[in-house]
Amino acid sequence: MRILLVKTSSLGDVIHNLPVASDILRRLPEAEIDWLVEESFAEVPRLHPAVGQIIPVAMRRWRKSLLSRATWREIGHYRRLVSADIYDAVIDTQGLVKSALLASPARGRKFGQDGNSAREPLAARFYDHCFAIPRNQNAVQRNRQLAAAALGYALDALPLDYGIAAPALQTNWLSPEKYAVLLTATSRADKEWPEDRWHTLGAALNDAGLHCVLPGGNATERARAARIAGSLRHAVAAPTMHLTDLAGLMAGAALIIGVDTGLVHLAAALQRPTVAIYCGSDPALTGVLGTAPHHNLGGIGQAPAPAEVIAAALQLAAA
Percent of the chain having pLDDT more than 70? Predict the structure, then answer.
């Protein structure tokens, strides 16, 4: 049986779809799984041993140069690649018109959420089979339920398993001491936790014997990481890193604390103790979900106080 999973972006959404591959591997061990994903996030499904071919798309790049011949050559190559095989099931857990259109050249029956369930109801018109998936639950569970309905297996007693692992990062800039990773950057200003609170948290972690490592994706994020690290006794702002190296950094961490960003979900997927800080989104729908100890703190317009985050972090660090 050949299956194509369609989950292109963002980083957190792609991570939320990893348990689908694990479920399929358990229920249909002979299945061959391919994955359609935005090129910048392709490293994530590559970490899963059940995933075979990665079919990358570059919508973010293509939109910036739609009149370019090079862009249309890439689009043509993508269409040939995605239609090269016949799939028994093409499962779009993204639920967007964009993802439905990207899946349309694939040869095989298309499965997705119905118009009342999909993030963009119009997407349902592109599927051969639609399913009602309750929206008032965590995104990880919604993905799993859709795939189970499409492929006809039960989720009963199936453990939550992201299925990925990463070796600890080996590098000369990382202290050999026990460390916590602080994920201070996120895609929206309303999801950010104020810098002074990160200073307070970092100082408490230092007092507890933990060094702090602060990654940043772009120049602005790295500058913020450097400011916070500079105010602490034992901290370092990480250099630019690829996702695979970031996974290795987190795999070796004693503790990970972050705002609502894809990387905090990667921490949970790697089964690391995690504290997720919510300021502008609802943790009931997008909160960290994993088998390792974790806390989801805050909510929309309810940024948690430093004392609350420190207490949760120290409780996990001592476990």
Answer: 100
DSSP letter, residue 260: S
pLDDT of residue 175: 87
- Closest alpha carbon to 242 in 220, 270, 221, 263: 263
Reply yes or no on whether the pLDDT at 187 is more than 90. Answer: no
pLDDT value of residue 319: 83
Strands (E), 192-246: 211-214, 235-237
CATH superfamily of 179-318: Glycogen Phosphorylase B; (3.40.50.2000)
Burial string for 190-214 (b: 16+ CB within 10 Å, else e) reads: ebbbeeebbbbbbbbbbebebbbbb
Is the pLDDT at 201 greater than 90? The verdict is yes
* Inter-residue contact 78 to 55 (CB < 8 Å): yes
- What's the pTM? 0.95
**Extents of the domains making up the chain:** 2-151, 179-318
| CB contact at 8 A, 117 and 133 | yes
Positive or negative torsion for Cα 182, 184, 185, 188: positive
Architecture (CATH level 2) of domain 2-151: 3-Layer(aba) Sandwich (3.40)
- 210 neighbors 318 (Cβ within 8 angstroms): no
